[in-house]
Specification:
40% helix; alpha+beta; single chain; 513 residues; 24% strand; binds adenosine-5'-triphosphate; five-stranded mixed beta sheet
């Protein structure tokens, strides 16, 4: 299966098993808006809990807040979003489809990278053990040709980005022969700027209405509460404020499922520090956040940093944590050194003094900020795309399994009586279920054959299946099947809780941080 096909299968799987549904589906859906189903919401909540606890419980100097989506419209002037939160868009005149010009070029560069990797893989296959990858990359003519092409386009693109030269964006697209995937033509309009904020009005009459925006990031809710939290929490610098909440962006192109949505959720933490210490803290948070990711167990090789060459208007250093999605390495989280841009501007626009008095040095200053910002939905997609596997079994059948890291799995254990028409078995199974449900999210399932029930649980990523059979009534043991190994073992009912807990308890993940 190609990665493209795999991605389509994953999207269908998410719908079939209650993870993610297109929004308003009975009305044919709403572009780039998705709802989480009964399984999806559990996975999402577990991810949020892992993040929230890692931030607010493991760090005594980080506290959480929950600010509103609606905020004073001036906030978005101060933050620079009214003036500068734009994407460069381009239309194909034949298909009438709209694209982000920068993404078209980035995808083109991504394809060249893929070609290089394919050449290397071919070389590896051909030369076997004697393969010297470094030498191959430095000498193979096909690799060198693609590399040169990459460098040339990349350099032009970076220069155009730096200069916000949109005519050059278009020229690169034309020179590279990038065509619209729908019409297959290179008949492009000029590149234009497009503001991504959604607006609505507040107030009961049209006359008195104020234009307000749906927040495009949660960060500003933290900045405008900086003084409140610092004073009421008696926080000393360095300290952080964390928040999880919805954000809205009128994305020009919103394909790739929940990777790019118009309504999504962010987990953001703003860390307030003394000016001059920002690069040290930036390095520290890069390391901390990467550790948080790798700790989940999805393979360190699937993550990488991508340092920004062009910095946002507010930043003096920035990097992305990229994850290897089925469509390539893409941004999962952003880490930014935001200077005192936001607090400084809120001070200017609001007229309120926003500073910190350092009791030790006796100085007052506007704190600098390191931000870590991760999309919950992108994290859900990372987990699901990594977890989805089709495995050939010894009996010739295939099983679909979601090997979701156990502490994040929506259902931790399924309790099943071997047969449903035996009251003793169903009674004992219900009793086990009623006991375990206070500690774990469990599912009781008595329909269909045991084999089918195992498949259903594999498909939603349940780490344990617990089967109650006739012997259980006598020996007080049950059969526990492990999702990943499919191994079965007899376990005393009294030991079930400890066995499950060892594998699924989120605290075990947190302890490794
Ligand atoms: P991109 O370059 O992919 O548009 P960005 O650099 O604009 O992302 P940030 O503003 O840094 O993203 O937002 C922080 C995080 O929020 C991103 O790393 C991503 O995980 C998430 N995010 C941003 N936009 C979206 C979206 N439209 N849908 C889902 N998640 C998003």
């Amino acid at each position: 299966m190609t990665q493209d096909e795999l991605f389509k299968v994953l999207v269908a799987h998410c719908k079939e098993y209650g993870f993610i549904f297109p929004s308003s589906e009975i009305y044919d859906g709403l572009a780039a808006v998705y709802d989480y189903g009964q399984m999806g919401v559990e996975l999402k909540n577990n991810i949020k809990q892992y993040w929230w606890n890692a931030m607010t419980r493991l760090n005594e100097n980080i506290v959480g807040i929950d600010s509103c989506i609606f905020m004073h419209p001036k906030i978005w002037e101060a933050s620079g979003h009214v003036g500068a939160f734009n994407d460069p868009l381009i239309d194909n005149k034949d298909s009438k489809k709209r694209y982000r010009a920068d993404v078209l070029i980035e995808d083109y560069l991504g394809k060249i990278e893929e070609k290089i990797e394919k050449e290397v893989a071919k070389g590896k296959k051909k030369f076997g053990d004697s393969f010297d990858e470094e030498q191959f990359r430095a000498t193979n003519p096909n690799v060198l040709r693609e590399k040169a092409k990459y460098e040339e386009v990349h350099n032009r693109f970076k220069a155009a980005e730096e200069a916000s030269d949109f005519a050059e964006y278009r020229q690169i697209i034309i020179d590279c022969g990038i065509v619209c995937p729908i019409s297959g033509t290179c008949n492009w309009t000029d590149v234009r700027q497009f503001n991504l904020m959604f607006s609505t009005s507040m107030g009961s009459t049209a006359d008195g209405a104020n234009t307000i925006y749906l927040r495009p990031e949660t960060a500003q809710g933290i900045f405008v509460n900086y003084l409140n939290v610092q004073k009421t929490g008696r926080m000393k610098i360095p300290f952080g404020i964390a928040q999880i909440g919805k954000a809205f962006r009128n994305e020009i192109v919103a394909r790739q499922f929940i990777f790019r949505m118009r309504e999504f959720e962010q987990m953001e933490m703003q860390f307030f520090i003394k000016p001059g210490t920002e690069l040290d803290w930036f390095a520290k948070w890069k390391e901390t956040r990467m550790k948080w990711h790798v700790n989940i167990g999805m393979g360190a090789e699937n993550y990488r940093f991508h340092d920004h060459e062009k910095l946002a208007h507010y930043a003096n250093a920035a990097t992305d944590v990229e994850f290897k999605f089925p469509f390539g390495f893409k941004e999962l989280e952003g880490i930014h050194s935001r200077t005192n841009f936001d607090l400084g501007n809120h001070q200017k626009f609001s007229g309120k003094k926003i500073t910190y008095f350092d009791p030790e040095s006796g100085e007052s200053y506007t704190p600098y900020v390191i931000e870590t910002s991760i999309g919950v939905d992108r994290m859900v997609l990372a987990v699901l795309s990594h977890a989805y596997k089709e495995e050939a079994l010894e009996n010739g059948e295939t099983r679909v399994v979601l090997s979701i890291p156990a502490p994040l799995a929506p259902i931790k254990a399924a309790v099943m009586p071997l047969v449903k028409n035996n009251e003793e078995l169903t009674g004992l199974a219900q009793q086990i279920m009623n006991d375990l449900k206070f500690d774990f999210n469990c599912q009781y399932d008595e329909k269909d054959s045991i084999g089918k029930r195992y498949r259903r649980q594999d498909a939603i990523g349940t780490p344990f299946c617990i089967t109650v059979d006739h012997d259980s009534l006598v020996d007080h043991c049950v059969t526990v099947r492990d999702r990943d190994t499919m191994q079965q073992e007899r376990v005393p009912i009294a030991e079930l809780r400890a066995l499950i807990d060892k594998k699924v308890n989120l605290n075990n993940l947190l302890r490794n941080l």
